[in-house]
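Good day; I would like, with your permission, to put a structural problem before you. A protein sequence and the structure tokens that stand for its backbone fold form the material at issue. Thank you for your consideration; the sequence and its tokens are set out here:
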Amino acid sequence: MQRLSINGGSTFAAKTVLKRHVSSSLIPCSSNFVLKSRQCVSACLGCTCSKCASSSRGSDSRRFKSTRPAIADEADDAYHHGESPKVTMYPLHDWKTQRPSVTPRRTRTATPPSLHASVALDLPSPETALHQEQEPAIAPRTQPTQMVYSGTTSIPITSTLHIVTPQEDTPRGIWPAFRMMDEDGCFRDVASEGAREQRIAVPPLASFQADLTSPTTAAPTFLTHLKEAHPKYAEILDQSRLFRVAKDARTSFTPSLDDNQDEETQLPLFMRAHRHMLRVREMDKILQNAQRQGRISFYMTCTGEEAIHMGSASALQLQDHVLAQYREQGVLMWRGFTLEQFTNQCFSNDRDLGKARQMPVHYGSRALNYHTVSSPLGTQIPQAVGAAYRLKMTQKDSVAMCYFGEGCSSTTDFHSGLNFAATLKAPVIFFCRNNGYAISTPVQDQYAGDGVVARGPGYGIASIRVDGNDIFAVHAAVKAAREYVLANDGAPVLIEAMTYRLGHHSTSDDSSRYRDSKEVNRCLEDHDPVTRLENFLVQHRWLTSEKIGQIKEIERKAVLRAMEKAERRQKPHLESLFTDVYHKLPPHLLEQQDQLLQHVEKYPEKYS
């Protein structure tokens, strides 16, 4: 804290005056109230000269104009005309640890002080003044209260994590979506919940600087900083694995060859999550282009849904079983599936774990408890209930996680799966990623009600809606759902994550035929989950724009290397086409195998 004395006189604390004008956007300058910008002080106190008047708006500036002492005008005129007033600055106390001793209450009848007085301002100490001059101003931000990703329904936002149980009354009107972090990378102000529009001062970015030279101590220090800044989220942050050091949170993944062990194991898990979000996005770009070039037959991207993958996968345990649809490659990547394994499957070579029997992107891994993807829509939902019931019978402390899109909610498998899970108390989490479109069918043609989450209470299933583009909210919701399932004798939970599919449904689809490109561009610019997390990381100095660009390039080259290796490998032997179904081949399969071998022998030039 520094005290600024202008033209001598008595002293007073002007913190309230400054707050009033910051909150009403009267000081747009970018100096962060550093001493060099004296115009900030004069503008705050209602300067009427041409330079400061242009910066002042609203009734407060007009009221101050009528009550300003003449000497203040003289001081301002002297400064703006090249004659600086006498200014001295001297330390008051340690600004980092001590609050001002005098903090007057804000009153509407307060008369603005004159420049005869000495003004106590929240100025940086001399050793940090130069550093803070490079920071953005402490400017107010608007906290959104509604969100619209697709369709026309505006969904209210809540900052309170709450799973609605069957014993509770369901929310009136539209179910709110749980969110912790807004698009600008700032955590929400829980105390201001419910207002139509909130203007909240952004805390100084210099309040924490990640010391990446000692990441082991930086992670817990940063967590403490966040809990102090957002006490309403303290319990959620304490329990979140994303804020733990990666080496201490490996219960949700197996380190793979793609992981940078030296760098990632010492950093918080949200750094690994960010890197994997970039990795899966680069993989999607390259393999989609490979399909366009005719190098693979099919591909499906998950662009815009990466926060769902990393947020939910990091909240699960490795012993939890995953039954995915066909757009959850990030979940499998998080668990330890390597780029070589992804590309081997897409190129259907001899290293493909499925032995080239499946379409591309139909991954599976027994070692990682990731059930093989199947093409028919919604079949994984009742299968997940069966897997979950088996886990319950064996008394394992684990759940089944079932991913599906909102289009699956129109199938009979959705109804039978949820009904069986509720009546049998199968420990399963139903995770619906509502991305706006079931191939070409928009949500307004898919259902007339309030999405998918509102159906949960009808089945007697606990339910929650979450912002699917907020990785921290998704992680918190899935972790809370898992704890609820295990604590309530396997009672299932339905989660609806609101997101937006930025890419085509698949390489067989052209989404420009049924949706406007402006809609896609708006969601990419305003709601991209990768950009949202990067805003958070850059604000708190875990990353820089330059470092993010370097990571993207590293991941792009890694995908290209893996793809080139997979493309050069040979295809599986034909004999493997008939194995792994029966312990001993039955007569009809032996006959088919002979017919196939005779056909290949007859036309060798076609199969060389």
User: Anything to note?
Assistant: Confidence is low (pLDDT under 50) at residues 1-138, 195-207. The radius of gyration is 29 Å.
